[in-house]
Design a protein that fits this description.
The complex is a heterodimer of chains A (140) and B (96). Chain A is mainly alpha-helical. Chain A is built from 6 helices and no strands. Chain B starts with a helix and ends in a 37-residue tail after the last helix. Classes of the chains: A mainly alpha (140), B mainly alpha (96).
Chain lengths: 140, 96
């Protein structure tokens, strides 16, 4: 199980509203290389790892990805929550806003909703670990 | 500077220690026999635990269903929450 701790892994305190930036950063939340995919990838793959080290690493990194997800959500929230309609339109946030308002929705910057097709869990530890290398190469 | 200075300072100290603890945890996952790092890890955990206790006494619970509540008020629901600006300290300006 998980225990929620009421703080961020690293603080997020955005000074300047910027819905245009929010529209890009949402991809790190629910896009093809985002934190949600990473968390689900590791937390799903851990069940069939065979060494103590690999089980622990996937369990603990998967957990940390959830903390990253929360930070990214906080960034998008703070960038967009007090944007006025003019700013929203001017910075291209309107195509997101029309469906989600100032809500946080797991989707890519291009508007593609999050899908489990972004990740793989094969039951074979070696295959999964190779998949992780490919995935995390994009996450840096 | 503001009334939250002490609270922010304490939260920053805890956050710094936790950040180190997470990384040491991940390192130890693949280096479980490294006694020097285990000692550092334990020291960080101990220090963070005592600061966490201090924070919760003054500002309310940090953890869901792990932290005691004051008897007259369930402070867990108090705002702000971590995703709000007001919750977070400024990394550069806070409590140097």
């Amino acid at each position: 199980m998980w225990i929620y701790e009421k703080k961020l892994e690293f603080p997020v305190k955005i000074k300047q509203t910027n819905p245009g930036l929010a529209k890009i950063i949402i991809s790190q939340y629910g896009g093809p290389n985002g934190e949600l995919g990473a968390a689900l990838r590791y937390l799903s793959q851990r069940f069939t790892m065979v060494t103590p080290q690999a089980k622990a690493v996937l369990n603990d990194i998967g957990t940390e990805e959830l903390a990253h997800l929360e930070m990214i959500g906080s960034i998008v929230h703070q960038l967009s929550d007090d944007a006025d309609p003019e700013e929203i339109k001017k910075h291209g946030f309107d195509s997101y806003y029309v469906d989600h308002g100032i809500g946080i929705y797991p989707a890519s910057a291009a508007g593609v909703p999050f899908t489990a097709a972004y990740l793989q869990s094969t039951g074979d530890p070696r295959t999964d670990l190779y998949e992780n290398m490919a995935a995390d190469e994009n996450n840096v | 500077m503001c009334k939250n200075d002490e609270r922010d300072s304490l939260l920053k100290k805890i956050s710094v220690l936790d950040f180190i603890a997470v990384d040491l945890n991940l390192f130890l996952d693949t280096h479980p026999d490294d006694e020097e790092v285990i000692e550092r890890y334990n020291n960080i955990i101990q220090e963070a635990d005592s600061l966490r206790y201090e924070f919760e006494e003054m500002y309310g619970p940090l953890c869901s269903f792990r932290s005691m509540s004051p008897e007259n008020e369930f402070k867990w629901i108090n705002c702000p929450w971590p995703w709000q600006k007001a919750f977070n300290f400024n990394v550069k300006e806070c409590c140097k």
